[in-house]
Design goal:
Blueprint (H helix, E strand, L loop, with lengths): L1 H17 L3 H51 L2 E5 L12 H15 L7 E4 L5 E8 L6 H4 L8 H10 L13 E9 L4
Helix pairs in contact: 2-5
Length: about 180
């Protein structure tokens, strides 16, 4: 009889541990997605320059995010107030966090990731994307200075409403958002 009583207690302990801490799991999920995205971008740039990397951003980046999210049972996205792809435009909650990140950078402080509770009870972990690699400027820098004319033409063809240029190293590009479902 004691064996039967122990099983529900063990089962509850396993389920209690199954819910990840967004502040711990979020950075790991972002690092995994960023590594895959960076690898794909590096490979594309190596084969065909910055113009080749544009297909990674337009086609592969959403797929990479979806694959990583599915593995971890979360939703994952990048968001910004200056999107290249309109699907990455920041919503109101993301805009508020981007303002906090920008304020920290203005004070020459590292922006700290934020955890928020959403209206549906889910929790989101948001981390800043700060441009730290000079390669990023080949597509996100200043047109005709950092961005070659042929790359700029390709950007304008693929993304006619592009707003994702004019950045410098150290600028806030956007954020990663990992949303953990409500486990209630």
């Amino acid at each position: 009889m004691k064996r039967f009583l122990l099983l529900p207690i063990l089962t509850l302990a396993v389920f209690a541990q199954a819910k990840p801490d967004p502040a711990e799991a979020g950075p790991k999920i972002i690092a995994e997605a960023f590594a895959k995205l960076s690898g794909a971008l590096g490979e594309a740039i190596g084969k065909s320059g910055p113009v080749g990397a544009l297909s990674v951003c337009s086609e592969m980046a959403p797929q990479i995010a979806k694959e990583v999210a599915t593995i971890h049972g979360v939703t994952l996205r990048r968001a910004t107030t200056k999107p290249r792809n309109p699907k990455n435009a920041a919503d109101d909650a993301e805009k508020a966090v981007l303002e906090v990140f920008a304020a920290a950078l203005a004070k020459r402080e590292a922006p700290k990731p934020q955890t928020i509770t959403n209206a549906d009870g889910s929790t989101s972990f948001l981390a800043p994307i700060v441009l730290g690699n000079p390669l990023c400027l080949q597509c996100h820098g200043i047109p005709n200075q950092d961005i070659a004319p042929e790359t700029l033409a390709a950007i304008q063809k693929l993304f006619p409403d592009d707003k994702a240029t004019g950045f410098k190293l150290g600028d806030l590009r956007g954020l990663w958002r990992v949303t953990f479902p409500n486990s209630k």
